[in-house]
Design a protein that fits this description.
mainly alpha; Amino acid/polyamine transporter I; 23 helices; transport
């Protein structure tokens, strides 16, 4: 059992001296990465999802739904930015967690990232097809519903071969080369942003604030569309909308997968993530405000709300401008969703956690060719068979879990004695530039081993009182932090469940729920304070998450809470996906792991000065 657990927690070893070596082609600059982040994110959220959420879940409060989803994404983005500065390697959160918490958690994150990007690609392809079809009076939909109907629960009413074809076309573009894909993305993203500005400016002339305060009589005196007003579906509906709107921000993390294709990844990745998220937030907020002010939320078209709204207010020329922007926006969003997918598969295959043949890189195009075509085919099949809403919810759960684990990894890493493992592990305990390898120096960094028998009061003192003389972490402070983080995550899960049950309950149990929620919130704050007083790792990097440990903990809470707001059916599908992943890992990955074969599963803090790779 000890050996089995050791395999699950073995870490990926990073050689800092050659961390920038890669088989891939380093051609992307900061502008390319920023455009990739904006393009991959600014698509279906504006042209499709905003109208669906406003009509069915949040009403005009969709503005707040986007804001909450944006906060969750920005906090996650800051965590990704720090990791991108630390580990400029292909694989995004998968690699980050592999070097931090171990192989099994890394596989879970990587497997969830594959889910995120496969469904992200499929959902955008489906949205692209749906939007285009709405412009030609739903000709494609009517044809296939009449000739090839699919009456299966959870699947699309008809096979969308158009979405399948779009996905395969983009797969071929990606296979040709990363620079060519980036040029295509930059042009279409520029057009998309111009259309967004056009819609916001022109729509402002047709805005009517009365649409934010409709009465129940005005919406037909029915409960189908809520009770009217700014928040017709209540606070719970607004938060459920936020869980779906979160989908609209998924995609910026594709920037983090370009670590081996960016020219200066340690600087370019953090800058690109922050700039792209800020731009996306402004665009979504502006568009959702204009959309709900121009037309009553309950009468919005679910497939293509923007052109229909401009048609209804008598501005038909805008319909064609928006159509151009939608085609460009959904195309770049599709490219951005598909772009990181083969790279995550490539990273996992290179490490042996999934089948190694998937890591083959084309000598001509310098892209992971096999992984690209297999992932494109899988995404195309899902786009053809599944409904958009089912895809959106299922993708959100995998993404939220990945974001949660990235935030946890940031917390763990910032309070470790040393962030990464080196070839000669004894060097972990020697400060950079320090040529004193004597016992006293090493003992200072590790902490005095004689203090292991310290009493409980001394341990509590270390948990809650900051030692001004302790500037760097010790083994003891590192363990305190790790235990606290585990407790915080457990408390957040319980608190989120209490809040969700209280929101949806119609009984008189809410006062008790409020009391319980306050107790757990206070307990979380105490644990966060205990982390805050511990010394941080002082390794210099280009970007660090500010206000540690508070921002990552807030990110963890928002992500877990939004996960709890997703439907039971979504959780069941997610469980099936994870079961398939575990079968691959325990059947193949755990025995073929590169770290396992290299014999480097020795715990980081053991005495291994004479260890040979």
């Amino acid at each position: 059992m000890s050996g089995f657990i050791g395999k699950l927690v073995r870490k990926k070893y990073i050689d800092i001296s050659n961390v920038t070596d890669t088989k891939l082609n380093r051609v992307l600059n900061t502008f390319d990465l920023t455009a990739l982040g904006i393009g991959s994110t600014l698509g279906a959220g504006i042209y499709v999802v905003a109208g669906q959420v406003a009509k069915e879940k949040a009403g005009p409060a969709v503005v707040l739904s986007f804001f909450i989803a944006a906060v969750a994404s920005v906090l996650a983005g800051l965590c990704y930015a720090e990791f991108g500065a630390r580990v400029p390697k292909t694989g995004s959160a998968y690699v980050y967690s592999y070097v931090t918490v171990g192989e099994f958690i890394a596989f879970i994150i990587g497997w969830n990232l594959i889910l995120e990007y496969v469904i992200g690609t499929a959902s955008v392809a489906r949205a692209w097809s749906s939007y285009f079809d709405s412009l030609i009076n739903k000709t494609i939909q009517h044809f296939f519903e009449d000739n090839m109907p699919m009456n299966v629960g959870g699947l699309s009413p008809y096979p969308d071969f158009f979405a399948f074809g779009i996905t395969l076309l983009l797969t071929c573009i990606l296979a040709i080369g990363v620079k060519e894909s980036s040029t295509f993305n930059n042009i279409f993203t520029g057009v998309n942003l111009l259309v967004v500005i056009y819609v916001i400016v022109c729509g402002a002339f047709k805005a009517d604030t009365h649409n934010w305060s409709l009465t129940r009589n005005e919406i037909g005196n029915t409960t189908v569309y809520g009770k009217g007003g700014f928040m017709p579906y209540g606070f719970s509906g607004m938060m459920a909308g936020a869980a779906t709107c979160f989908y609209a921000f998924v995609g910026f993390d594709c920037i983090a997968t370009t670590g081996e294709e960016a020219k200066n990844p340690q600087k370019a990745i953090p800058i690109s993530i922050v700039v792209s998220l800020f731009t996306i937030f402004l665009a979504y907020t502006g568009m959702s405000i204009i959309l709900t002010l121009m037309w009553p939320y309950y009468d919005l078209d679910s497939d293509a709300p923007l052109p229909e709204v401009f048609h209804d207010v008598g501005w038909d020329v805008a319909k064609y401008v928006i159509a151009v922007g939608a085609v460009c926006g959904l195309s770049t969003s599709l490219l951005g969703a598909m772009f990181p997918l083969p790279r995550v598969i490539y990273a996992m295959a290179s490490d042996g956690l999934v089948f190694r043949f998937l890591s083959t890189v084309s000598k001509r195009f310098q892209t992971p060719l096999i992984a690209t075509f297999i992932s494109g085919l899988l995404a195309g099949v899902m786009a053809m068979l599944f409904d958009l809403q089912e895809l959106v919810d299922m993708m959100s759960i995998g993404t939220l879990l990945a974001y949660t684990l990235v935030a946890v990894c940031v917390l763990i890493l910032r309070y470790k004695v040393k962030c990464f493992s080196f070839k000669h592990k004894v060097e972990v305990y020697i400060e950079d530039g320090d040529d004193q390898h004597d016992t006293s120096s090493k003992s200072h960094l590790l902490g005095n081993t004689s203090k292991k028998k310290e009493n409980t009061s001394g341990y509590l003192k270390k948990m809650f009182l900051r030692d001004a003389n302790q500037k760097t972490p010790t083994i003891e402070t590192e363990k305190i932090t790790e235990y606290n983080i585990a407790i915080i995550v457990l408390l957040i899960v319980i608190l989120s469940l209490i809040l969700v049950v209280a929101e949806e309950s119609i009984s008189d149990s809410k006062p008790w729920a409020i009391v319980l929620a306050l107790i757990f919130a206070i307990a979380i704050f105490v644990m966060v304070y205990s982390i805050w007083v511990q010394p941080e790792n002082q390794d210099p990097i280009h970007f660090k998450v500010p206000l540690l440990p508070f921002l990552p903990v807030i990110s963890i809470f928002i992500n877990i809470y939004l996960m709890m707001k997703l439907s039971t059916a979504t959780w069941i599908r997610f469980a099936v996906w994870m079961a398939v992943g575990f079968a691959i890992y325990f059947g193949y990955g755990i025995r073929n792991s590169s770290e396992g074969k290299s014999g480097q599963s020795v715990p980081l803090l053991e005495e291994t000065s004479d260890h040979e790779d």
